[in-house]
Design goal:
With about 210 residues, the chain is an alpha/beta fold. The chain contains seven helices and six strands.
Length: about 210
Amino acid sequence: MKSIVGDLFYFPNLEYFCTLLNVNKLYLNPSGLYKRKSFFNRTQIRLANKVETLSVPIVGRRPNIPLGQVEIDYRQKWQKIHLRGIQSAYGKAPFFEYFFPYIEEIFEQKPQFLWDLNQKALTICLKLLQLPVKLEILSEQQEFPDLEDQRGTITPSGHFLERGIYQEVPYTQNFGLDFEPNLSVLDLLFAEGPSAKRILEASLKKH
């Protein structure tokens, strides 16, 4: 088991959780700078006819602000859109009724900052996956020279095949005949329930 420094994403994809296998402590740094077009405020789910990107709107478009200070824009009714999308995508999935209340509760809390929303989501997903990863928040002054730093590794601009972390292990998805890899962890949880961790372990690319 090891400790790493990593990113904090919005309902992260399977590749992200593959990096947390065999990790017992994940250090997160809210003083890192926000970058547009990242997974910090977006995730992907599978609807009947397409893969849909769910994005959390943020207040303003100020570049170079700390991640911990990015505010959620509640003037837009994005929670209803996201919950409706998740229900539409996974309402008939085998484990939807078991796991959806945990997800719904996160939206109902309405945190001011996206960092807090993502941290709550990650905590719940780790619990449902039965991954014993402890989250540690770094202060701005803390240094971590001895830790593996994985920040910036997983980005929307690159393909998972190029990174060599995750390999496609098909499971039964709610829609479509062709398997769609590396979606939000919600896709795996609602489809596989208690077997999700086993699928995830098989998805970790062996080097």
